[in-house]
Amino acid sequence: MALKYDYYLFDFDGTVADTGEGIRKSVAYSLERMGFPPLDTATLSRFIGPPLHDSYVEFCGMSDDQAERAIELYRERYVDVGLYESRLYPGIAMLLRALRRAGAWVGIASAKPQFMLERLSKHFGIDKYLNAISGTGLGRHSADKQDLILAALPQGANVARACMTGDRRFDIEAAVALGMTGIGADYGYSAPGELAAAGADAVFDSVSDMALRLLDGEAPRGLFISLEGSDGCGKSTQIALLKAYLEKRGFETVLTREPGGCPISERIREVILSLDSKGMSDECEALLYAASRIEHVREVIEPALKCGKIVICDRFLDSSIAYQAYGRELGEAFIRQINAPAIRRALPDMTLLLQVDRAESRRRMAQGAPLDRLELEKEDFFARIQAGYEALAQAEPNRVTTIDASKSIEEVAEAVKAAVDGILD
Ligand code: TYD
User: Which residues, other chains included, contact 13 with Cβ-Cβ below 8 Å and sequence gap of 6+?
Assistant: First the structure.
């Protein structure tokens, strides 16, 4: 993808992350410690973005020395506690990833201390998408925004090919003064009209609209992850942990399952799994899974991927290969053929195959809910399924990652995380 600019810089607070809570609480703490009257939430929010020193002087009437003392107290709470009272704006992580993947230079230019920016970037896992992080030192005088911006660019960069996105006029004014394009992030902490007045080329009130502009009309495509394994492999637990991990990293996720995932497919699921369906022909079963899949892809998976979300799907096509092609011995060609309408539209970018041996899987299943029609099948059926999964892992090693799921929940979660990081970063 050819991008309009070579360098994409971002302010941090109010643009990349909603750091408001930690900042407000830490300012309130410093005022209390110094015996200054408390401020209302709106005024506390005005501390987000500009240099703290200026805000203490302007909003609390402090002297320079008092402001320095207030900053010391503020940091006392902020460094260990307040820093982590923040979250990435939904969609930002995927935008930074998409820019970096498209070959752009991606940097942060913020009046926040350098070490805090580095810690937070690492905490959220966006450090992998950043070429440069430019923040302030801990000295008495905060750096000028123009200097911060220049420090986030490589030596000799042509500023005409750079754009700076920020949520306060300081960001935009500095960008414009340097001859760069200023893009306004109106979802942050700007006052009405502030960013346009400062000379922003465009102002956006959502990350998704901003991403369309920064990526020249192409929304970042999401990521499709499926989890597979025989019954009792611990998929559900790992799926919940994976979702929480991705959300902590600021990605938007959609958790779904097969068969099912949308109203029509959930009705098909009932037909397939019900004990009333005993005696269903193998072909009918395979076609029902395929029918539920095409609906699910159209209704849920495709739309989510189009808007940059990470789809975590509990089983997908590989289940049909393992269970119907191998388990029911219907053959891979037939299964791929009936699933063609679905997989033409979406195939997992990554499949995690959780493997446990049959004895362990039976032990785990015996502790769970009553068994459904498929779980009541005979042993040789499960042996064939296992062979099917192994064949898939061998045939598509780039997509299918096998994970030893007989280990502890924590160990399996670590392996899942490492595999997903591998494709995300
Ligand atoms: P479910 O209760 O979701 O099982 P699990 O928790 O093990 O995922 O039931 C889904 C069952 O359907 C499971 O036994 C596997 C089977 N299945 C197939 O045979 N083919 C398929 O294409 C899919 C998606 C599932």
Answer: 19, 20, 23, 48, 49, 110, 112, 167, 188, 189
Q: Is residue 266 located within the same domain as residue 314? A: yes
How many domains does the structure of the chain reveal? 3
Q: How far is residue 58 CA from its own chain's centroid?
A: 37
Residue with structure tokens 């107290």? 73
Is residue 160 domain-shared with residue 229, that is, in the same domain?
no
Q: How many CA atoms lie within 13 A of 313 on its CB side?
A: 30
Beta pairing partners, 351: 226, 400
Peptide bond into 259 cis (omega under 30): yes
- What's the predicted TM-score (pTM) here? 0.89
Report the distance separating Cα 173 and Cα 213, nearest Å.
20
DSSP state of 325: I
Residue 318 Cα to ligand 1 middle (Å): 10
Residue 372 CA, closest ligand 1 atom number: 2
How many whole angstroms from 236 Cα to the centroid of ligand 1?
12
Q: Encode pLDDT of 254-264 as tens digits.
A: 999 999 999 99
Do strands 87-88 and 17-18 pair parallel, antiparallel, or not at all (unpaired)?
antiparallel
